[in-house]
Write a structure and sequence with these properties.
This protein has 273 residues and is an alpha+beta fold. The chain has a single domain, classed as C8orf32 fold. Helix content is 33%, strand content 19%. It contains nine helices and eleven strands. The strands form three sheets. Strands 7-8-6-5-9-10-11 form a seven-stranded antiparallel sheet. The chain is globular. The N and C termini lie far apart (46 Å). The N terminus and C terminus are likely disordered.
Length: 273
């Protein structure tokens, strides 16, 4: 190899290693920027979680709605939902299916802060965008809400009940698996026990493992269904809070109360783990 060719190859390698994640990311299509915020074709603001147009529609201490998940459900179901259906066909056993879906999200998404990927402190991707990037490249980048939304939608496509759960500075998924044996904590959602935590942000995590820092704190939960995307307006549905009852035996979910709960919800995506 000629010296000049060697130099050019070395420069190319160094440049590739120096390119920030934001340049490697695959931004969503059909987005527009207004007053420093990014909106999608449903008028959902991808760069904030609060308010009527926020991707989680955090309205108050007693109400949130993970509206970005509905972009991939119902009549607008696409790649992520179909992925879940494929897992249902390949794994008839509910518990094996749930484990395989969890492992898919854990292994195919590499945790990366939004600021590094997109240049925004917060930037939510919907489940189909994440699933499509995985299909095209074999992996993708995302942060906690990207894992949570993908898992919630894939589980619905696979015929599993799922919920988005919010903790201070964090989002995760709950899945209904009443006979799951590996959960270090379990939950009761709306008086129904058998929900387990799906925390896919760590490469060694297993389904049912809940990080210690979220034990004993208030947790807001919203069960998702196959409802289609609708107008961005308050749902009137109160969220729920999980309070610990003991290892593996269940969490009780009851209404959110107080200004303190609102304050951490409003700020949770301004601080990253």
């Amino acid at each position: 190899m000629k010296p000049l060719q060697s130099i050019l190859i070395c420069v190319a390698v160094i440049f590739a290693l120096m390119v920030p994640a934001s340049a490697l990311a695959s931004p969503s299509e059909n987005l527009r920027e207004e007053d420093g915020q990014v909106f999608d074709e449903w008028d959902v603001c991808r760069t904030q979680c609060t308010g009527q147009d926020g991707f989680l529609q955090v309205f108050s201490a007693t109400e949130f709605r993970p509206v970005i998940a509905f972009e991939s459900l119902g009549q607008t179901a696409d790649e992520a939902y179909r992925l879940g259906q494929e897992f249902a066909r390949d794994y008839p056993d509910l518990y094996q299916r749930a484990e395989k879906i969890f492992a898919f999200a854990r292994d195919k998404i590499r945790y990366s802060p939004d600021l590094d990927q997109f240049g925004f402190r917060e930037f939510a991707q919907n489940a189909d965008e994440v699933a499509t990037a995985i299909k095209e490249k074999g992996f993708t980048y995302g942060d906690c809400e990207d894992y949570a939304i993908l898992l919630a939608v894939m589980y619905r496509g696979a015929g599993c009940r799922s919920a988005v759960v919010l903790a201070p500075d964090h989002a995760a998924t709950l899945v209904y698996l009443p006979k799951h044996k590996r959960a270090n904590r379990s939950f009761s959602l709306g008086g129904e026990s058998g929900w387990v935590w799906a925390e896919a942000t760590g490469g060694n995590n297993h389904l049912g493992w809940m990080p210690e820092q979220y034990m004993g704190v208030q947790l807001a939960a919203y069960e998702v269904t196959d409802e289609a995307m609708t107008a961005l307006e308050p749902s009137g549905k109160s969220v729920a809070i999980a309070t610990e009852k003991g290892g593996g035996s269940g969490f009780l979910i009851s209404p959110f109360f107080g200004v303190v709960g609102l304050m951490w919800l409003l700020s949770m995506f301004r601080r990253r783990r």
